[in-house]
Each structure stands twice: as structure tokens, then as C-alpha cells.
Amino acid sequence: MDAGLKRELEAKVYAGERLTREDGIALYSSDDLTWLGRLAHHRRTEMNGDRVMFNVNRHLNLTNVCSASCAYCSFQRKPGEKDAYTMRIDEAVRKAKEMEDEQLTELHIVNGLHPTLPWRYYPKVLRELKAALPNVKLKAFTATEVQWFEKISGLGADEILDELMDAGLESLTGGGAEIFDWEIRQHIVDHACHWEDWSRIHRLAHSKGMKTPSTMLYGHIEEPRHRVDHVLRLRELQDETGGFLVFIPLRYQHDFVDSADGKIRNRIQARTTMASPAESLKTFAVSRLLFDNVPHVKCFWVMHGLSVAQLSLNFGVDDLDGSVVEYKITHDADSYGTPNTMHRDDLLHLIWDAGFRPVERNTRYEVVREYDAAPTLAERRAEPQQVWA
Ligand code: SF4
């Protein structure tokens, strides 16, 4: 990137001006990571100071049986496959109860599009989870699942959301977004929920007072211009509804050979690489700069490893998800040694070691507890340093 354009972009960021599609593409063309990080960190600090938010949650996948076969997905199984599973409601409740001692504040529930489970199962499972864990917020179902519920129930999303909210739903999850541009989407997504339905369902949820997350799956066959397009669609919807709390860039993962059946399920693996840490940091930074009206940018550390998660805090990220004791959808595709369990104390130290102030939040990003600011580097040098994988 030439020096003139760099100065122009810098001036826009420091003046708080909205960046354009062309600006976003230009930022992605820069390999000056330090510069990108500085700009994103400026924006992040203006919005969120030295805070890093986290919550104590648990991921629960009720079933891995799915009618769709998205090209990148290593989670889904077909009915009858050896490790296909579907939880009975009491089983889901028992698993959730196991976490009670850790003072979790949120259950994050996403599932395959099960071909025969009836619609009634879903509000029922929410009701029973809520009865068993009344203080835990239920963040459940992607827009794709809600559209699936429309298909299996014959109801509209309006009635479906009302019933799920009545059963205890606090928030939808942000999944199913992947990359909205059809040029890419048609090659990776195998269900019927695309931008029109995804945005319709989140818009509807926002109109009912619900706040939701938004996501993007990057690092597969898309190009930077598709990431920019994706974020600009979300930014426009956010201008309209103000209902997104956070944007989460999700790093596409390669599959590993399944020891149970020797299969690799990811069908685009042979022609893709995974985004490098530098590419991920760039994606966080450009996302923070472009998506100027979303309050938070999150790093889902399970997909990145802890060192990159720490670095991401200097590249626009102000939220680390979460205390994950069981997470299947990504972890089926990870043989790289990233832990899948972190607890409150681990997260606190991870954040302090990166030089930030931890703040525990709930699903709505309300503060549950503020912690002390990070010790200075000089103070930390006096202590043995922890190495984060
Ligand atoms: S990404 Fe979701 S909808 Fe697609 S195959 Fe996997 S579980 Fe099914």
C-alpha cells in the first residue's frame, strides 16, 4: 500500500469517519500488521478502554445428526452413523447441571438439523434447562436452526421465537452466517438459510428486544473482498436495528482423520489451508475498524490457541469466549493441541498477562464483576512468567 493511502486511512480512523468497502479491501491488502494493530487498538480502546470481557459458559450440542452436509463441517453425522447422537432431555439437563459448581452464567446451545426430532422437543428442552438452572441464561439456536424449525413445525419465525422466548431463550447464537456472498456461499453451505433468511430472523429477534451475536467463517475459499462484503451487510443491519452485541470472526478449521471410521468429513480440505495467525490478527483488526457500530469483537480462543488469543487483544478484540468445558463443533476439527477447557482463573491470568483488565459479563454484556487492572510489566517481571500454548 502506498504511503499516501496509508495516511488517508489513518486520518479517517483517527477522525472517527466510517470506512468504505474500498477502504476495507485496502486494509486487507496491507501486510503491515503493526500498523493495522495500532489502528484497530486505537478504535478498540476508544470503545472499550483496557477492558477484556469474558463469561463463564458451557457449550451444549443436543444432537450431531444433521440433514445438511456443509462442505467445511466435521461435526455433522447422518442417522445411523456410529457416533451419531441425540440427547434425551434429561440427559441434556444432567450434563448442564454438572457445571453448576463453576457458577456458569450461560449455556450456549447449537445443534445439527435433525431430520426427525419434532419441533416440540426444542422449547421443551429449554423449559427444563431453565427449571433446572434458573440463574443460567440460555443462548441457543442459530438462525439456520430457526429456519429449520419453521420447516418442521409449519409455524413462522415470529411464533417460533415467541415460544422459545417464553421457554427461556435469552439470545440466539450467531452461527450459520459463514460468508454471505453467494459466490462463495453456494460452494460451502448446504442448508437453505442464506443472507435473506439469516438477516430476517435476526431482525425479527431484535424487534422483540433480543440482542444477538454475529459471526463470519473466514480462511477457506473466500477472498478479503468477501469478508468486507460480509461485514458491511452486518453493519447495515446494525444501523437499522442496533441489535448485535458482538462480532466473532471464526477461523475455518481443517478436519483430522476420525479414529472411529477413518474419515475426513471436510470436503474442501484438499484445496484449502487454514488462516495463519497473522491473517487472523489482520481479520480481527480490519473487522474492528470496518464494523464501527458493533460494541464488541470477540476471539473464540478454542479456534486460535491461547497465544494468538492474547495477541488479538491488541488487534481490536475486547472479548474472550469463555469457560468452555465441552465444545464439539470446532473441536471435532482440531488436533493441534489447543485445550478445550478453561476456567475463570485461567482466563483472568490470560487477560492480566496480556496487560488488560478482566471484566466478567453476562449474555447481555452487562457487568457481573470487574477485576483489578493488569499489573505493570515491571511488576510481572518479578514473577515467574506463565507460558500460554
Ligand atoms: S454446519 Fe450446521 S447445518 Fe451445516 S452440516 Fe454442520 S451441523 Fe449441519
Description:
One of its GO terms (molecular function) is 7,8-didemethyl-8-hydroxy-5-deazariboflavin synthase activity. Residues 52-279 form the Radical SAM core domain. It is a single chain. By secondary structure, this protein is α/β, with parallel strands linked by helices. Helices cover 41% and strands 13% of the residues. Strands 6-7-8-9-1-10-11 form a 7-stranded mixed beta sheet. Strands 2-3-4-5 form a 4-stranded parallel beta sheet. The radius of gyration is 20 Å and the shape is globular. The mean pLDDT is 91. The site of iron/sulfur cluster (SF4) has 12 residues, from loops.
Shape, per Cα inertia axes: globular
User: How many strand elements?
Assistant: 11
- Could you say which structural class the secondary elements and strand pairing correspond to? alpha/beta
- The strand order across the widest sheet is 6-7-8-9-1-10-11
Q: Gist?
A:
The chain has 389 residues and is of the alpha/beta class. 41% of the residues lie in helices and 13% in strands. It has helices at residues 3-15, 21-29, 33-48, 89-97, 121-132, 143-153, 157-166, 182-188, 195-207, 224-241, 277-290, 306-312, 328-331, 344-353, 377-381, and strands at 51-55, 57-60, 106-109, 137-140, 169-171, 212-218, 244-251, 296-300, 319-321, 357-361, 367-370.
Structure keywords:
4-stranded parallel β-sheet; binds iron/sulfur cluster; 389 residues; 4 iron, 4 sulfur cluster binding; rSAM; 7-stranded mixed β-sheet; alpha/beta
